[in-house]
TrEMBL record:
Protein name, UniProt field: Oxaloacetate decarboxylase
Pfam family, one: PEP_mutase
InterPro entries xref list: ICL/PEPM, Pyrv/PenolPyrv_kinase-like_dom, Pyrv_kinase-like_dom_sf
Species in which this protein is naturally found: Teichococcus globiformis
Gene3D superfamilies to which the protein is assigned, alphabetical: Phosphoenolpyruvate-binding domains
Origin: domain of life: Bacteria
């Protein structure tokens, strides 16, 4: 079931910062931090689950169970990437139903051609705006609860320009999108213009490590009219960098004794994060003494 808190925060004009989660360790860590929402990134989830690029290779079947697991294991509302809806109108309907049943709170649908590509990589092509508007209408009809929010993303900025991206954002809002996501604006002025010209809750995509869009503060984004900032790459880029450094050290030195402080986490904390104390408590409550053998 969708979490009504996300819709409530939007109605109250509370700015939402959502870190990217991509596996269950990142989900558990982020869920404990006090964020208003979590963003289940398609790029990171595809990379961690399949080890392939976010280029339309993953299917609905690959993704729905993982997105549902993120949502069901988190107390925080989960916003989930659903690419193009994994096909045509019937696929979109099936995707919305599956994500909502899994406990996701907001679904992100984009207007790229199939196969899609990651939003901050080259070569993206978009379908006609009217086709995407139909997808949004189908998605709105397919959901069971109005607390389940629809995020309409357009990738038109990179290939067709900002005017077309803004035009599409307006069309998608009129079609029933709760939140509009203009992907890959390239300057602060472009982001400000988006906020001025689209009357809808807006999502900003902050891609760390070399994305196409400038990363602005929550305060500045809110002043431009944005409602949500996602950081999809922060988690998996941080983890990959730490792993590369740690593994390289092990390869070079043959042990981990001289790794700098703070590189390796505490094993006891990881046990607590994963829920081992509950398992140990269960074992204590239900353990039975070993039966004594009869004297020979």
């Amino acid at each position: 079931m969708a979490d009504p808190r996300l819709k409530q925060m939007l109605s109250e004009k509370k700015f939402i910062v959502a870190p990217g989660i991509f596996d269950m360790i990142s989900a558990r860590v982020a869920d404990r931090m006090g964020f208003s929402a979590l963003y289940a990134t398609g790029y990171g989830t595809v990379a961690s689950h399949l080890g392939v690029p976010d280029a339309g290779i993953a299917t609905f079947t690959d993704m729905v169970s993982r997105m549902a697991r993120f949502a069901q294991a988190s107390k925080t509302p989960v916003i989930a990437d659903a690419d193009t809806g994994y096909g045509g109108l019937l696929n979109v309907r099936h995707t919305v139903m599956g994500y909502e049943a899994g406990g996701v709170t907001a679904i992100q649908l984009e207007d790229q051609e199939v196969p899609k590509k990651c939003g901050h990589t080259p070569g993206r092509r978009v379908i006609p705006a009217e086709e995407m508007a139909l997808k949004i209408e189908v998605a709105a009809e397919a959901r069971k609860s109005s607390d389940f929010l629809i995020i309409a993303r357009t990738d038109a900025r990179t290939t067709l320009g900002l005017d077309e991206a803004i035009r599409r954002g307006r069309i998608y809002r009129k079609a029933g999108a709760d939140i509009v996501f203009i992907e890959s604006p390239e300057t602060e002025d472009e982001m400000k213009r988006i906020g001025q010209e689209i009357d809808a809750p807006l999502l900003a995509n902050n891609v760390d490590g070399g994305g196409r869009t400038p990363i602005l503060s929550a305060e500045k984004l809110a002043s431009f009219g944005y409602s949500i900032a996602i950081y999809p790459a922060l988690g998996f880029l941080t983890v990959a960098q730490a792993l590369e450094k740690s593994y390289a050290h092990l390869l070079q030195h043959g042990d981990t004794n001289a790794l700098p402080d703070g590189v390796i986490g505490d094993f006891a904390r990881m046990n607590e994060l994963m829920g081992f104390p509950e398992v140990w408590d269960f074992d204590k409550r239900w353990s039975r003494p070993e039966p004594q053998r009869a004297a020979e």
